Automatic annotation (TrEMBL):
PANTHER family in the cross-refs: PREPILIN LEADER PEPTIDASE_N-METHYLTRANSFERASE-RELATED, TYPE 4 PREPILIN-LIKE PROTEINS LEADER PEPTIDE-PROCESSING ENZYME
Protein name (record): Leader peptidase (Prepilin peptidase) / N-methyltransferase
Domain Prepilin peptidase A24 N-terminal: 19-100
A GO CC term assigned to this protein in UniProt: plasma membrane
Intracellular or extracellular location(s): Cell membrane
Membrane spanning residue stretches: 6-28, 89-115, 135-156, 205-223, 243-268, 325-351
Length: 354
């Protein structure tokens, strides 16, 4: 989509997406951190997790600050988690991939918003094995805003190519204006009323959320019965329903399969890691809520995966009274991103096989 534009525009768009992604990655990492500690998400200055010193602009330059300070706080020299540069880089990569796939459209903006929410809930799920309701609400609001603004844009005759990356996917027929004797820009079939397009999109979204939501609840109940323990968490079910709201039921079948495969791979990969034992977890009640964190040595945190404890119920001492479930959210989030990228063509392909 984007790549059909002249090279200079492509370069600028990608650079802009990368810079914005780095800055947003930094911000979203902090949003996740604050959500986990019940701090106001937007109010208050950024501060060091350890010494509480307020961080200034030169401490907050994405990736650069962390690298320049060799991963330590400028003020107390405590080691700073490698998740900060990692999430900044991941966010930049997400934004660039979305701009390449969706071009400079309103739909790209929607996906950037959704990807940002996925980023936050992945961080909280990896850390605390829960998906905050605020992220679910934010995702729904972003989708609803997109539908409303898409309708407004079509009503005031904004070119349909600036709204949707693939107008045909929304049942919009592009007419060849040149063949009709007008200018050389294609325009969309004026008989396709804006409200019909948008109502259709809204119906697909709502049906998708309901069908996928119900399907996942049924699947979870069956798995709970089979495994004899809680399998898919409430937050995961809500996230699946939100994915249905974004992608519709058809694409979500693909999404569920991908999420399950990734979840199994993630579980296997983390299960095989050596050195996991109960004593590397502590129950941190200092903030008045239960959380488990890797505290073998706070000052010697290794690469990012090392400090995101994958948490299985049986690995946490039962005596501590904390029930942990495997964090499935990041796998669902990654499946959402894969669906964003290739969901349309893949769904087309398997529907043709039927
Ligand atoms: Zn500090």
């Amino acid at each position: 989509m984007l790549l059909t534009l002249p090279g200079i525009y492509v370069g600028c768009a990608i650079l802009l997406a990368a810079v914005l992604g780095l800055a947003m990655g930094s911000f979203l990492g902090r949003v996740a951190w604050r959500l986990m500690r019940n701090e106001p998400v937007l109010a208050g200055r950024s501060h060091c997790d350890t010494c509480g010193h307020v961080l200034f602009a030169n401490d907050l330059v994405p990736i650069v600050s962390w690298t320049a300070l060799r991963g330590r706080c400028r003020y107390c020299h405590a080691r700073l988690s490698a998740r900060y540069p990692a999430s900044e880089f991941a966010c930049a990569a997400l934004y660039v991939s979305i701009v390449i796939c969706y071009g400079l459209t309103l739909e790209a903006l929607q996906m950037v918003g959704f990807a940002s929410v996925l980023m936050v809930l992945s961080l909280t799920d990896l850390d605390e094995s829960y998906i905050p309701n605020q992220t679910i609400v934010a995702a729904i609001v972003i989708r609803v805003l997109f539908i409303v603004f898409a309708w407004l844009a079509l009503v005031v005759h904004v070119p349909v190519q600036a709204v949707f990356a693939d107008p045909a996917a929304h049942g919009i027929v592009l007419m060849d204006a040149q063949a009709l004797g007008f200018d050389d820009k294609p325009f969309w079939d004026p008989t396709a009323d804006a409200s019909i397009v948008v109502l259709d999109m809204l119906r697909t979204s709502l049906l998708g959320a309901v069908i996928i939501g119900v399907a996942v609840v049924v699947l979870a109940l069956a798995m709970d019965k089979f495994l004899g323990r809680s399998s898919i968490g409430g937050g995961d079910m809500k996230l699946f329903a939100v994915a249905g709201f974004y992608f519709g039921a058809r694409q979500c079948l693909f999404l569920i399969v991908i999420a399950c495969v990734l979840g199994i791979l993630f579980a296997l990969a983390t299960q095989n890691r050596a050195g996991f034992s109960d004593d590397i977890y502590r129950i941190d009640q200092a903030e008045g809520k239960s959380s488990v964190s890797n505290c073998a040595d706070e000052a010697s945190q290794g690469p990012v995966e090392d400090e995101w404890p994958f948490l299985e119920e049986e690995r946490v001492p039962a005596s501590k009274g904390v029930s942990r479930v495997f964090p499935f959210g990041p796998s669902i989030a990654l499946a959402c991103w894969i669906t964003m990228m290739v969901g349309g063509p893949v769904t087309q392909w398997y529907l043709e096989l039927l």
